Amino acid sequence: MYVLGISAFYHDSAACLLKNGKIVAAAQEERFTRVKHDLSFPIQAITFCLAEEEIEIVNVGLIVFYEKPFLKFERIITTFQHQTPYTFNVFRKTISSWIKHKLWIPNQIKKELSYEGKIIFSEHHESHAAGAFFTSPFKKSTILTIDGVGEHACTTIGIGDKNTLKIIKEQHYPHSIGLLYSAFTMYCGFKVNSGEYKLMGLAPYGNPIYKDVILKHIVSYTEEGVLKLNLKYFSFEKGIYMINKSFGEVLGKKARVPESEMNQFYCDIASSIQAITEDIIIKLAIYAKKITGLDTLCLSGGVALNCKANGELLKQNIYKEVWVQPASGDAGGAVGAAYVGWYHYLKNERVYLKDALVDQIYLGVSYTDVAIEKILREYNINYTRLDDERLSDVVANALEEKQIVGWFQGKMEFGPRALGHRSILASPLFEDMKQHVNLSIKKREGFRPFAPIILEERVKEWFLVDRISKYMLFTFESELKTKIPSCIHEDRTARVQTLDKEDNVRLHKVITKFEKKTACPVLINTSFNVRGEPIVASPVDALQCFYQTDMDVLVLENYIIKKEEKVLPHKDLIQNKNHELD
Q1: Strand 153-161 relative to strand 475-477: parallel, antiparallel, unpaired?
Q2: In angstroms, how far is CA 489 from the centroid of its own chain?
Q3: Cα–Cα distance, 32 to 36 (Å, whole number)
């Protein structure tokens, strides 16, 4: 039996297909449309999922949408009403999209997919909770979901038990940790729903000296983690901007102009709100354990992607085990929605996934050697095809020589992280590598940190870590910043990815050979894309990214391509692009 989960119409639209309770395919729409955070109906992602199983839509027994549109619409209308007349123009602009399609999801699904089967709805935070708990190894667990807002809830505490979950506590809009963090994202000159990663990366460059000011004027919270925003300083209820003029006045400076020079003030602001966010999450986690009595925790929602907060949570030893859903944002809502259908609606017995990376994240599109070679010939590209042994030698040598490698293998990752299938690889041994990759490859700010990928069997020698970390969802400290300066951040932490041989045989071999050459079992692993664009999905995407940056080597499965002097690539692979704010 197949169940299809869908998330759409806010940001990061996605689709997920379950077969007898197991994820067999999942993808974000942005990877196919090449529109970052694409919010449109995920027709291409759905088409991929069906094609991956070689089925038609008629074979799908149930479709589940990740939230309840009428509940969400009710909250939006109530907010507009309370903020009249300020919201009139925004209301006029947004109401048409709700009336045309956002309220009529079954009609949209039937129209787009020619589907005649059953369609049901999950609540937004129920989807987040299900996506976390049902992908975890736990039979019973506390569940904490934290994001901007769903229908009404912004934060929930729940309990998962075998094939059911129940939300037992909720905090409602507008008092939201996610919206608070996004407000400071905008204040520091970054883009909301995209730049939150930047704010987290900026925080270690500052000190939390504005924490008291923020807690006095902008936000307060209880010992249970119950949040209260001082709405005097926010404008998101009016539907235009996150913050207003008073927000900057109380902090002492206007909001930073996007793309302007970064100064210490905004670094300190970032550090302050990061510290507050960590405090709130820890208090929530303590309170959640108190009322559930359980010693395992599942986390989801966009705020669960704050790996620094997750790392601080681990240090508290509140729970014996913590599981974070790798695609915790709205894309992962498609996963949770599918599970709500499988377990809550169809009442199936729990299927426990083995703890393997391929079960959780390598769920997207892949390409055969025949398909790749056809594309390389079509674009008249010189290439060499190498066996795994020779390929790993060549790539390890290139990395040792300070070359940057585009790495394209197997099934595309699902979620926001590149975990070794659509990655850019570099040596962490050079002091200037972070700056070089940020500016010359990624086309982004030089302060942004890079994650290390390390052989699982070596991780305890390089990081203060007591667990495997397959998904880059926790930060850990290291005392070896002088040895690998380009992937240890200013606060001596790093968002570590541990790699087991079974997870990715080919990349494991490359790192093993790199270690033999350099005595270092670590590489920089960053997503294969440039600023403002989604992670590459196809070989053509990879080729375009390769030729538009200063990457030195591109690996497509066993095919290796190197930049050649005085040889211009095909004109379709060179596109002059402005790397927009992300």
Answers
A1: unpaired
A2: 19
A3: 10
